[in-house]
Specification:
The complex is a heterodimer of chains A (112) and B (501). Chain A has 112 residues and is mainly α. In chain A, 64% of the residues lie in helices and 0% in strands. Chain A has one domain: Helix Hairpins (Orthogonal Bundle). Chain A is elongated and about 65 Å long. Classes of the chains: A mainly alpha (112), B mainly alpha (501).
């Protein structure tokens, strides 16, 4: 149970970063932390008490193994997160070239 | 041969082919490849719906790799998916034709087509996916391509809008991902039909409300319902006009409306409380966004606010939960994707000829740009709900359905929203097309033929849209509404269709 609470805490840390930080690089780091906590949570869902690795071998009687599917899904999710982060970072670099600042409160030409 | 996987294969292959070889060929060849692949997708979606209509099953299932559904990934083409595929590919085809000339003013056309086709891949994949995690992956493919497309011009405003959109979109995807994780943790399956069966057999009192809220936040952000709408008026106008047409026309509907109603109606199962939340948010978007739109002077920003308002109508119709309401909501979804993409293409045409988006700068363009003015008038009357055009019929059905169920307040709100929409578009017509022509626009020309072709075709669909309600075309809408009305019987239909060889 404490592990799930840790995930929740990590998620809240990420959300705090997204909502409260003014530097856009810190906002991107906040998004990253949120993604890590979600992936951790999904892997934990597949954990079985005293489970072993889900590798089938001959002459072995596997009684208790962890669920392999979340691990495969989290791999996909990590790759998606990487793509999103790469795009966000490249946008942040271009924003710095145009505005000369990373401060989100000074980047406000759009309104209405 | 099974056509279902081609909806993903064709655009994905064209996207990678163009990105790898775009610099080697002449520009006309790249235009031809993307145009042909969009045309093939459109033809295939008509063929698919026709085949579905003539087959004995209510759904066609393609098993990827030959694995049976609860274990393998499957792709499902049913009435609702066929309807959405036609909507998406119709708009994508005309936008692709429009882009041939319009995108000349941007530098890197092959990259544009790559991102555009990736977005189409994401939307088509999301619509035909029968596996919840696959749905999430395709949703992210479409979203990330759209973040990049919003920033395509790489000007200061566009980058700012794209950053805002990408942050909001990532948070939304996060909520959707957690929702999927909870559903997987409870049911131990990712197949949508199997999940629906397990949730029906062993209901959980705490899981469903919790997951519902997560999905309402996630998909609500993607669909820009009113409390979650802040990113849309920045993001949609900043993109190139042809992409604004895709984003407002189909992306918010495929990623937001379609995914939400599919999960709620067919997997989780709907409750009265959830439906009233949808109706309330829909009515709120309808009124708030149209009031915000009235005071806009930037043409594309005004259109973006109207997108939020019109998506409110779709949610109001679907949220009623009656056969008539769902039919009206889906019909309005189709109509909105046609006339809103037409309006954005008109704004792109004005931008192409005059170089401005500000309504106060333009005036009297009717004289020089008759085709743009005419098609824009048709689209404006459609969106405002003037009788012979398609928008009138769908709004009328939604208002009737509200009255039928006794929600007089919502019916009144829908009528009021329609009147305010009319007011707002009278302003557009007056400032952009009527009055005296300004001196500096003496020498502008009407747009090239390819752009005219897309606008005229979409305008023709606006005029003729009403015939979809006639009995001989009724399967198009009633098949889609039937999928939502069948609710959790979806599981039996899909698993039954998969079991047949």
């Amino acid at each position: 149970m404490s592990l799930y609470l840790l995930c929740l805490t990590l998620f809240c840390v990420g959300l705090y970063g997204v909502l409260r930080k003014r530097n856009i690089v810190k906002i991107i780091i906040g998004i990253g932390i949120m993604e890590y906590s979600m992936n951790l949570f999904f892997v934990l869902l597949g954990y079985r008490y005293h489970g072993r690795t889900p590798i089938d071998a001959q002459n072995q009687n596997i009684l208790n193994m962890v669920d392999p599917l979340p691990q495969a899904l989290v791999m996909t999710s990590i790759v998606i997160g990487l793509a999103a982060t790469a795009l966000l970072i490249s946008i942040a670099i271009r924003i710095y070239e145009k505005y000369g600042t990373f401060d989100i409160t000074k980047i406000k030409r759009l309104k209405g | 041969m099974n056509i279902i996987p081609l909806f993903v294969i064709i655009p994905l292959f064209s996207a990678f082919f163009i990105s790898l070889t775009g610099r080697l060929f002449k520009k006309g060849f790249i235009d031809a490849i993307s145009g042909v692949s969009c045309f093939l997708l459109l033809a295939l979606s008509f063929y698919g719906l026709n085949a579905l209509n003539h087959s004995a099953n209510q759904a066609m299932v393609y098993k990827v790799g030959g694995w049976m559904p609860p274990f393998g990934i499957c792709m499902v083409l049913d009435g609702l998916a066929g309807f959405m595929l036609i909507t998406v590919n119709l708009v994508a085809f005309f936008v692709c034709i429009f882009s041939i000339n319009y995108m000349e003013k941007y530098t890197d056309k092959p990259k544009f087509y790559t991102l555009f086709l990736l977005m189409v891949t994401g939307m088509n994949g999301l619509i035909i996916s029968g596996d919840l995690f696959n749905l999430y992956v395709f949703l992210e493919v479409a979203s990330i391509a759209s973040y990049a497309l919003v920033a395509f011009g790489t000007e200061a405003e566009e980058l700012e809008a794209s950053f805002k959109y990408a942050i909001m979109g990532s948070v939304a995807s996060g909520f959707i991902f957690i929702g999927i994780a909870f559903l997987y943790g409870f049911t131990s399956t990712l197949n949508m039909a199997d999940m629906s069966r397990i949730l029906g057999a062993s209901p959980s009192s705490w899981l469903v409300p919790f997951v519902s809220v997560l999905f309402l936040m996630g998909f609500g952000l993607k669909a820009a319902l009113v409390p979650f709408h802040a990113w849309l008026p920045d993001a949609h106008p900043s993109a190139p006009a042809s992409i604004s047409a895709m984003l407002s026309g189909v992306l918010i509907k495929a990623l937001g409306v379609y995914a939400m109603v599919r999960i709620f109606f067919n997997i989780i199962g709907i409750s009265a409380g959830y439906l009233s939340a949808l109706m309330f948010l829909g009515a709120l978007s309808m009124i708030v966004a149209v009031i915000l739109a009235l005071s806009q002077w930037d043409l594309k920003r005004l259109l973006a606010y109207h997108s939020i308002s019109q998506v409110g109508y779709v949610f109001l119709g679907i949220g009623l939960g009656t056969p008539l309401g769902i039919l009206g909501g889906l019909f309005h979804l189709f109509n909105h994707s046609v006339f809103k993409s037409l309006l954005f293409l008109n704004s792109g045409a004005i931008d192409y000829s005059t170089g401005t988006r500000d309504l106060r700068e333009m005036s009297g363009l009717k004289e020089k740009m008759p085709v743009t003015a005419g098609t824009s008038l048709i689209a404006s009357m459609s969106i405002a709900g003037i009788p012979p055009f398609n928008g009138f019929f769908s709004k009328l059905i939604i208002i009737f359905a509200c009255i039928q169920k006794g929600f007089y307040g919502y019916a009144l709100a829908a009528a009021l929203g329609s009147i305010l929409t009319l007011a707002s578009f009278m302003k557009v017509q007056k400032y952009a097309f009527l009055d005296e022509l300004k001196e500096k626009y003496r020498n502008i020309k009407e747009v090239p033929p390819a752009m005219k072709f897309s606008m005229v075709c979409l305008a023709a669909i606006c005029v003729l849209g009403g015939i979809l309600l006639l009995p001989s075309f009724k399967f198009f809408l009633s098949g889609a509404a039937g999928v939502l009305l069948e609710g959790k019987e979806y599981a039996g239909i899909v698993l039954g269709a998969a079991a047949k060889p």
